[in-house]
Protein 1
Amino acid sequence: MDFTYDDEQKALQQAVRDLAGRNAPVEQQGDQPVGPAKHDPKVWSALAEMGLIALPFAEDLGGADASAVEVAIASAELGRARVATAYAEALVAAQAIALAGDDQQRKELLPPLLEGESLVVPALSEPGRAWSLDAYDVTASGAEGAVTLSGTKEPVPFADAAERFVVSARVGDKTGLFVVEASDAEVSGQRVKLSGTPAKALGALDDAPAALAAAVNLGILTVSAEALGAMDAALPMTVEYLKTRKQFGVPLAAFQTLTQRAADMYVSVELARSTVLFAAMRLAEDAGDSETASRLKAVTGQSGRHVGQEAIQLHGGIGMTAEYAVGHYTARLTAIEHTFGDTRHHLARLAAGLRDHEQVEVLAG
Amino acid sequence: MRLQLSEEDAAFQQQMREFFTTKVPADLRERWAAGGEPAADDIRLAQKTLNDAGLAVPHWPTEWGGQEWSQLQRHIYLQEMQAASVPPPLAFNANMVGPVIATFGSQEQKERFLPGTASLDIWWCQGFSEPNAGSDLASLRTSAVLEGDEWVVNGQKTWTTLGQHADWIFALVRTEPDAPKKQMGISFLLIDMKTPGITVRPIQLIDGGHEVNEVFFDNVRVPADQLVGERGQGWTIAKFLLGNERVGVAPVGSIKRKLADAKAYAAATKSGEGTLLDEPLVAARLAELESQVAALELTVLRVAGNSKEGKPDPASSILKLRGSQLQQDVLEFIVDIAGSASLEWASTSDSDGSDLATWTGHATPTYLNFRKASIYGGSNEVQRSIISSGILGLKG
């Protein structure tokens, strides 16, 4: 077992760090954008040019033949620089197509997606419903070749920038995956309304649930690594502030009530780091290991919440302002917690599988 | 980045698993797993068995019984030992005074003490804390005055764990009362517990157990050649010892063992038409603890792998803190699973029979007993200070 990066991985990390640094938001002047990230075609092209979207996919599909480990390395750097993009969403869509799609669909849909030419995002959430990999309110009907979907998906992050969607929809008592052209749907902000909208089934119905689970697992890894990057930046920023900010004539670092809490933040970040690195290795070997993905999401969810909240609190008022970066990290960590299932969802999923093992084994021979 | 153990490490894991589960008697391991006050003879037999196989002190210098293992192999060894509920080699011997004598002791001291320390023919206890020197250890007042070729020791030590079984005590004593700083003027002295003038008085704890003691020194005469290192070097030695104590102190294997027990207990405890394991709050807490313990184990492994170049990974400082927290969380979970059955204590019961499962009788005392874990070996507040000043550079 080895948690260290090889030279190639270190080079990738540095390259993405440079790219992210060039595209990082700049604060401290004028009105700062807050709220969900907007798609930035320039940044997206830069990511694609570096081959980041293609990283985990096989060469014959237009991929770079790297793995989930490289995805985690790249995503952490984007998180560190607060470059919030559709990276995780695009990877989920691409993985779903790669795993569920037939040969023709892979050949048609993947290359333009991996090259950054046409954005495909998953449309999974349904309004008024808690997160689920199963679809309930969006339904598919019609015979093969003439399938239509009806119902609403929302929120669908980056819907307004996508060319097509990978949509989960109810088929009888099962959930299938379908490809829908954005031009055929009624898209408004993050809402995708489908009413008798033409759709193409993504592969065979029976393969869809496993493919979707594996695809979302990759998404979980991507956002969790991004969260690690964000925590990795928010902690030193907080530490620096404690050293320099003076109150009562002394630096804040003179107050143990603050430094002890900073130490706890460090603990959270390091536990999250171990968990992200391990999950990346596991998912690189078995994309369908949902148990590892759920543990990852639960650990980074709790760490992210802890570090995000404390980063603001230890800063005080300045942490609340849009012109200072630390609050933006907290906002992004909060969004990540609610992306691809929150801590509660994943603990419930793990709870359902408790009887399958006596202990959690991480050391494999 | 690699997930699998190397072939060599996987074979090592098998070898350790086989040893611990076949060479250490099953009844001994069952008693250890059940909890309650550990029997001294069990600890002696376990350590002797390990030492005969060269497995009691693998981290010592090889000439004194150490093994040239990697950090990962050390982790596997500990993990397998704890998974098999084998009592670990006595920390005072294997992790504290042994490495101190091996590093700071004279050749005579090494030859005299190290073999018996490894085999537990000498049972050591620790004479560090005093009534007014806990986390602020350097305030200790027990004095040693040189008279001829003997040190005359007077004072009191406390929290002396398992001192009732001990043959020898290693003690920090003040030899230079006029030193300009309280950290200076402390020396590290080895004292035979049979020396006249030593009194051991038990301290009863809230779990009813007798685990710690007060040790009183009244004109105790100690041969001068039993001082380790230089006169006045005691603080340096103490820091070395406490540093060793913290490394690898996350008892991941035993935490995992206990958590697996908790799951079995929950599944065996009826609740309504089902069991406690069917209850969402119980199952969710279990899933949460499993995730957190896995995160700790992965951190232990990552830190072990990263310390190849000799310097410990700074993240190792979180292991004591997080390890003690999770150890306590799991024991709290077990006492909660026992619920009303935890009201009956196995150790204080005077009835002949009970229909309750044995583990429920140990649940409360064990839970109470392990509140110590966040206090000893440098309290968790001290650990946080080490992280904030040593790693984050936060100095007031």
Protein 2
Amino acid sequence: MQNPYIPYPVVVDKIITEVDTKDIKTFRFKFVNPEDEAKYAYIPGQFGELSIYGKGESPIGIASSPTQKGYIEFTVQKAGVVTTALHEMEEGTLMGIRGPLGNSWPLEYLEGKNIVIVGGGFAFTTLRSMINYALHEDNRKRFGNITVVYGARNPGLLLYKEELEAWSKRSDINLNVTVDKGDATWKGREGFVPAVCKDVAPSKDNAVALICGPPVMIRFTLPVFFELGFSKENIITSLEMRMKCGIGKCGRCNVGSKYVCKDGPVFSLAQLDELTPEY
Amino acid sequence: MEKRLIKKDALAGIAKKMAGDVLVWAPVKQEDNVLFKPLRADDEPFFAYLNSKNAPKNVFFPHTETLMKYTRTEKGMVFSEEVNDAPQSVLFGVRPCDAHSFVLLDKLFDQEKYKDGYYIAKRRNTTVITLACVKPPYTSCFCTSVDGEPVSSDGADILLTDIGGDYLVEFVTEKGEKLAKYFGDTQADAAADAKKNEIAAKAKEAIASKIPAHEVKPILDKNFDNPFWDTIHRKCLACGTCTYLCPTCHCFDISDEVTEVEGVRIRSWDSCMFPLFTKETSGHNPRTSQKERWRQRAMHKFKYYIDMFNAIACVGCGRCVMYCPVNIDIRKIVTDISKL
């Protein structure tokens, strides 16, 4: 059995600078041993521990979709010791990833339902994994309408610009990209995510909302969805906590009787109501 | 299973003889403390001890442990899994409370989905010999309140009970029976058994310190925000002594230690009492003060572990009570919670 503490060796295959401020990059990794890719079978919403020897590990949501074969992607903001070292890496460098860790977006539950995806800023990464998964020709029929509201502070901070462009041309996804404040070239929507959600007003019928973003966005978006009639069971989010082991042992991400790393990171609002408010 | 008798003064010799064949951890006097140490040829095991200062959890979950090694190449780091070195071992003469702690730690480290191979390998290859407490060693002992007993085979492969001139040797598991050859050939009779039961009942009676540990779970379920939590932490220094000495505390950190060309990834004990334990890169800390950290400690032991594993994560050894530098007493905390 794979030792869960030992990372799979990967090589940095491609680095994409996502934003104008250059502090968010997407790292595409290839497994050094091709057979490891199958062992690392993941589901959208799961995360991995990016492992840089001598620096440590950082838990990051998986940004690619399992339908994208041959590589795995993580979008990482430069913040602490590990992510700073990662941002200084060059293509071709060897490092490691552990996982896949945690639960995932509840794919079985989402099957046959309309999906409303709301993302703010940098918290869009595992939602992007979900969108690419659901839009894949093998999966599209399994889900109903897909509505996306994605916002960033300004156009330069939007992630995955090429994909947003490609999605906008499809008829099987209702994509609403917004920025708090546009610039001279911005032709799209302006406005905060909660306001756009109110405007788009997705129906609660047979629908589940997946919402990720900064706390302030969550705080103002939830009332909109309550107003639209979404139940707490059908509003689902992903938590972040400080983590080390990722497998429910080291104790760091213990919230109430759950470990965010193994029982989460994905929880419905109904589940969060049961959890002690300490995250 | 089989039961035998050995002369009381034979015990040290048995431990030493065993140490000639396998790795034996036994209580050894070290300066003013008694600690479990790998017994070397010139060491004298000290079985007339009360309890070891440190809980013997380090036998399975060392204070610091290498998870993997790596070397630097031009292309980056290449790693190798640290070979899980778990020799056949005997943990000789632990107290019943500490043996009980292994059963509790197994629930966490040996779960169905995520198995901790480092812990499990050592646990599997180690035979636990428990030395019963025929007299409770300390006034702060409260094992009987947390599912333990001073004479108990819980967590033991072999149980030794002092019944006067002899030790009654009870082989509790097959793993324990494999060491039968070291324990002479005197079969225990019914009288020895009766004597042991009598001693066990007396010892249990003698545990005077009692806490309502089983009553507090439903109270904790409802009192996360009770003002009570504002009171208990005030004198806490956040030194972490309670968690380091605790037989069931198991939180750890993972860190890298490197030189120019090679390095190791290690795990080492950590503590929920430390502010940095939960501090995130953004600066956000879900447990902002010692209040939240103390609540976590109490909740984890007397509520969360029950929710997760249906067991209280405390064995009543009393180490945290004895060694807290500011006399915070978990027994008083639990008693106070029961009155909320």
